Amino acid sequence: MHRLFVALRPPEPVRDALIDTMEGVEAARWQGDEQLHLTLRWVGEVDSDVANDLADALSSVRAPAFDLTVRGVGTFAKKGRAKAIWADIAPCEELAILQRRVERACRAAGLDPETRKFVPHVTLARLNTSTGPLDHWLAIQGRLGAPEWPVDGFVLYESHLGEGGSIYEPVMRYTLDK
């Protein structure tokens, strides 16, 4: 089985700006540089045939290159408790178009439709019940910015679960139109 997702990888200057924020929250599990990405579509576990069909379907995705902007931070919560800290991405119609085309390719490869709303973000930390207060960190990082992020392609990744967290292996890179 292959545990897959489709994502954008921030360039080094953007990753550096994000990494610079990663301190000041007790017991937060901060992401490593190699884990920073913007998920376009979580696929999950699929067999080799579906993985190959997906790789082929994604090669038909056509969209123009575009730029993204990081604009602040936020959290995802479940049952009133924060589960993750993330960097927010400014609204971008080209990103929305790309995500919809990736979703269509996933469905063409036989995957069930994604039911969650697309919220463009880069996860910075995972949180648990031992995580300290977030208010101070959120106030300090609330206006987080980073260099403009030129997007000229997307990646199909395989996620390997390990003791120190997930390891993301690029499987296939796809280029956007210039």
Automatic annotation (TrEMBL):
Catalysed transformations (reactions): a 3'-end 2',3'-cyclophospho-ribonucleotide-RNA + H2O = a 3'-end 2'-phospho-ribonucleotide-RNA + H(+)
InterPro entries found in the cross-reference section: Cyclic_Pdiesterase (IPR009097), RNA_CPDase (IPR004175)
Record keyword Hydrolase present: yes
Xref: Pfam families: 2_5_RNA_ligase2
Keyword Hydrolase appears in the UniProt entry: yes
Active site annotation, chain numbering: 37, 121
Domain of life assignment: Bacteria
Motif HXTX 1 per UniProt: ranges: 37-40
EC number: 3.1.4.58
Residue ranges of the motif HXTX 2: 121-124
GO MF annotations in UniProt: 2',3'-cyclic-nucleotide 3'-phosphodiesterase activity; RNA 2',3'-cyclic 3'-phosphodiesterase activity
Keywords from the named record: Hydrolase
Family listed: Belongs to the 2H phosphoesterase superfamily. ThpR family.
Role, per record: Hydrolyzes RNA 2',3'-cyclic phosphodiester to an RNA 2'-phosphomonoester.
Protein name per UniProt: RNA 2',3'-cyclic phosphodiesterase
Biological source species: Alteriqipengyuania halimionae
